[in-house]
């Protein structure tokens, strides 16, 4: 099972969205967590956008990087400029940077757009990981 950590500054918008979407698509193959440099309350519009897609949001909570300090991850993905250095300090095999605007969503439409953008990246991540893990010969 591949372990993935999504890191953003506030752990209120991008990283919880990414965590929920990857769990929705491939929880059977991934152990997924998210954390933030300075966690804030989960964004209500982000949660609404996920629920609109029938993505389970139970168990999502904003947490600090200290909550994952004893973990080792296969992949750590920073989701904003402000979190990239902190993400690279987490023990992992690979690091990626997908930079989004990690500001609270002003409207449900903004949150829906952000969710769709992250969803496209998540689908690519799963596709690439699946291809790397398959023995083609």
UniProtKB/TrEMBL annotation:
| Listed Pfam families | LMWPc
Q: Which InterPro entries match?
A: Ptyr_pPase, Ptyr_pPase_sf
List, for all copies, the residue spans of the domain called Phosphotyrosine protein phosphatase I: 2-128
Query: Does the record bear Cell membrane in its keywords?
Result: no
* Example GO biological process: response to arsenic-containing substance
Keyword vocabulary terms for this entry: Arsenical resistance
Domain of life of the organism encoding this protein: Bacteria
Protein name stated in the entry: ArsR family transcriptional regulator
């Amino acid at each position: 099972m591949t372990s993935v950590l999504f890191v953003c500054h506030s752990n209120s918008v991008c990283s919880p969205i990414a965590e929920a979407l990857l769990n929705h698509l491939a929880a059977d193959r991934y152990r997924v967590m998210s954390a933030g440099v300075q966690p804030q309350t989960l964004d209500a519009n982000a949660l609404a956008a996920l629920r609109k897609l029938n993505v389970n949001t139970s168990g999502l909570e904003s947490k600090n990087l200290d909550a994952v300090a004893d973990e080792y991850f296969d992949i750590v993905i920073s989701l904003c400029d402000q979190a990239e250095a902190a993400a690279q300090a987490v023990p992992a095999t690979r690091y990626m940077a997908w930079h989004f605007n990690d500001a609270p969503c002003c409207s449900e439409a903004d949150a829906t757009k952000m969710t769709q953008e992250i969803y496209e990246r998540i689908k690519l991540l799963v596709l690439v990981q699946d291809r790397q893990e398959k023995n083609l010969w």
